[in-house]
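Following up on my earlier thread - several people asked me to post the actual chain instead of describing it. Fair enough. Here it is, all 303 residues.
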Amino acid sequence: MTLYGIIVTYRRPRDLALMIEALDAQTRSPDRIFVVDNDPERSAEPVVDRSVLRSRITYLPATTNLGPAGGIALGMQRVLSSAARDDWLILLDDDDPPTPDDLIERLHTFALDMARTHDRLGGVGAVGSRFDVGRGRVVRVPDEELVGPVRVDVIAGNQFPIYRVGAIREVGPFDERLFFGFEELEFCLRLRRAGFRLFARGDVWRIRRQNRPTPYVGMTMSLGEPGWRRYYSLRNLIFILRHNGQSLAAARISVVRGFLKPLANLPVSPRLSIRHLRLNATAAWDGWTGRMGRKVEPDSDWF
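Reply from S.P.:
Thanks for posting it. Predicted structure:
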């Protein structure tokens, strides 16, 4: 059984080089790695050519910035063209090297063990979450449940998800239309709808939670600067909820996240509030009407 890896990168050659070095230091690293370069200027190509894992890497240049969703979709399509049903695929962030040095081996062994007892295993990861689709929100798994295999609904992209190729082939790759934000959520919910199970490894999760505690974020009504990430997050969440039959939750998200907070700040910060309202209204409209793809350029100031 082959373990494939996908790394999507965009103008971070130093981070990519460190990631490849970290993979080389792992006790088990992917047998074949696809590096998807979202930079039309091909800034990742020299890094791949000089890397210690060059013999295992296939360089996939994109003609335009496809975002994480499109880049992963491109890599998945390439894997599906040759991989067997019982092969595996791990998703890797270019700026988040795996630690400790046996992390991938432990997760891959966990995947193989779970596959022996679960015919409809979709994938495993280091950390996951549950998702209340009716309310459109992530639910934190309590500390006391982080023992052994932990059932989850979603595995985040930076938590080294390992998916079974047969499951990807059945439900299809990532939805490239999302471009950025919640692409893992959409894919994992699709796996769950198809009857696949997802698990996180409890002992690994507990250690990672201890080392990276979730910061407390209190409720605040103040507004920061609006940004392109906000547009994609709001648009994509509305779109995903609607396509999971949760139009009421999508409407609630549209109103609460899109309009209530900017309207509350309108008397004290009228210009900033109007910019937020414009951004959120566009995101909500696009999410409801299915106007997907790369609609807002990263770091643009159109709003």
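The CA atoms of residues 45 and 59 lie 7 Å apart. That should answer part of your original question.
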